[in-house]
User: Fold this.
Amino acid sequence: MSGHGTGQGHGHHDHEDHEHDRGLSYDFPVLARRRMIRLLAGASLVPLVGCTTDDDSAASATTSDPSSSSTGSSSSAECATIPDETAGPYPGDGSNGVNVLKESGVVRSDIRSSFGNSAGGTAEGVPLTVTLTVVDAASGCGTPKVGAAVYLWHCDREGNYSLYTEGVTDENYLRGVQETDDKGQVTFTSIFPGCYTGRWPHIHFEVYGSLEDATAASSITNTSQLAFPKDVCDTVYATDGYSKSVENLGELSLESDMIFSDGYDQQMAAMEGSVDKGYTATLTVPV
Assistant:
């Protein structure tokens, strides 16, 4: 049983009937803004291109090397800020109940285990390394945002969110904060998230101006989500522990997802790896 991408599905967990409906109410204002931006873009009033698309290079009068990396766009290329998305009903940043950001130990790269005064559990699943490169959109994506911070969180392979879902409310795994390095990068060691009813597989993240802001849970500059390609999801979900995700994903598409249905080019992770060796997901985040 599924909400078919509406976020109003029933049967994943009892608590989600209420919480996902609440999450959907969060989503509508964000989606309305993004759709208006796209309408304006069609009238050439707002640039819709990002710094990572190959089509822009081909269409530009001043072309750059199409084999260049997503962070190596020419200074003349347009660079759109990462789309704003809802943090959803399970942020853990103090905006909906519990605040993990103020807990000692939240600044870490390996987020697979719970920390502090939690139950001390560890999330199991296919290994995943996530690297986000935060860049300055105003500079055409050419300048890394050094000294910024990223708070990243996602569900476990059963589709449960630590701190919120019944059974893991005493856990705080799959949540962590990192400060960007001199390349504007943060890297998290995690597991591939499951697919729960009504949502395409994704990872949430918030960008802060500094590590101090992040651990104070103040002054968020950007909130967005990372999406996973279907072929990788299919491969991962065929492994032990992800059985619920197979059915849930089969009832969804990126085009019907309540977050990614209006576009996901800037949010689709580049993937490398395998089930045996683990996967690496990378994404450029213009802010």
Notes: Strands lie at 127-136, 143-144, 149-153, 175-179, 185-191, 202-208, 220-227, 270-274, 278-286. The mean pLDDT is 81. Helices lie at 14-42, 54-59, 211-215, 230-237, 243-250.
